[in-house]
Every structure is written in C-alpha cells, then in structure tokens.
Write a structure and sequence with these properties.
Elements lengths: L5 E5 L3 H12 L2 E2 L8 E5 L4 E5 L2 H6 L13 E4 L3 H13 L3 E8 L5 E6 L5 E6 L5
Parallel strand pairs: 1-4, 5-8
Antiparallel strand pairs: 2-3, 3-4, 6-7, 7-8
C-alpha cells in the first residue's frame, strides 16, 4: 500500500503560514527539516510542509500562474463540535469561511475555509466508523 508522506503548500511567507496551521491545529514542527525555504510539521499519518519561493528552483518547478483552486487540504477531527470550534479558531487566526459547517450528502460534517494566503482547506468530521 502506498502512503502519503507529505503534502506541501507553496507560500511567499513560510513563517506566517506555518504559524497559522501550527497555532490552529497544534502541529509539532519537525525541526530537523527546517531551512530558509521549508518548514515541516507532523500531523498524524502524514506531514504538512510549507515551501518558500526558493523551493521552486530546488525542485525544478515553475510557479503556476492564474486563478483557481488546484489543491485542498482536509483535516479530520474527532466530532462535529471540533469542526465548529476549529472553524471559529481559524477565522480568529486570519482565515476566512467559504462555507459554514454543513452535513455533506455522503454523511460528513465539514467547513470550507481559506487560510491567510487564500488556500482552500476543510475541517472535517467523517462520521462514526461503520
């Protein structure tokens, strides 16, 4: 089985965005991976990284131009009350609500937000295990 190890968000200000997600969810920084162009955090089964503009050259990538959502992070929580609480806290830390917490057609309870950079993310309770 393949497992997701890292998901990274490119940002012009890695310190600001790393602090936002760390303050919101209480993630622990992987200090050994810190560099002028990267911050990484443990989040459970996968890690979350923040890559600065210098990472494009390092990875042989070109920044994408133009509007549109290309990636969305989903953070699972343990119950509906946590969806509400984390959504409120996210706004207090500088996020904006795209869609208030709601029940999905597939039985999840989630909110859709934008972080301070405008990246879309969800706070999600996938329901009780079957």
């Amino acid at each position: 089985m393949v497992a997701l190890a890292y998901t990274n968000i490119f940002t012009a200000d890695i310190d600001r965005l790393a602090e936002f997600y760390s303050a919101l969810f209480g993630f622990t920084e992987i200090v050994e991976s810190r560099s002028p162009i990267f911050r990484g955090f443990t989040t459970g089964s996968a890690s979350l990284g923040f890559s600065g503009p210098g990472a494009f050259d390092l990875l042989g990538l070109t920044p994408q131009e133009g509007p549109g959502d290309r990636v969305m992070q989903t953070f699972n929580v343990e119950n509906k009350d946590e969806v509400d609480a984390y959504s409120t806290k996210a706004v207090e830390l500088g996020a904006s609500i795209v869609k208030e917490p709601f029940e999905t057609y597939y039985g999840w309870y989630q909110s859709v937000l934008r972080d301070p950079d405008g990246n879309c993310f969800r706070v999600n309770y996938p329901g009780a295990p079957a």
